Hints:
Blueprint: E1 2-3, H1 14-21, H2 24-36, E2 38-40, H3 52-65, E3 68-73, E4 76-81, H4 83-89, H5 93-103
Antiparallel strand pairs: 1-3, 2-4, 3-4
Helix pairs in contact: 1-3, 2-5
Amino acid sequence: xxxxxxxxxxxxxxxxxxxxxxxxxxxxxxxxxxxxxxxxxxxxxxxxxxxxxxxxxxxxxxxxxxxxxxxxxxxxxxxxxxxxxxxxxxxxxxxxxxxxxxxxxxxxxxxx
Length: 112
């Protein structure tokens, strides 16, 4: 088992965490990780309407901001929230974001 580059706890910055929260797809990923605990980064295949490379980008943004922790096992990347770290650094922030996301109206459909 190996790990990919991600910030140490003392390197996590509020502005980067908030920037990571500022996207509907990433908010959906955060909600799902909160519910499931840990999951492979490709588990959402058909559940989120974005291309796999876009999904990988969103996971990278979350990881680099310090919101998630990614562990590599063989060819699988397992992702989980860094809840303990975020709660220690920014008490109540993650819960507030999750509660707000649950009560938000559904996103508008794409009108392409």
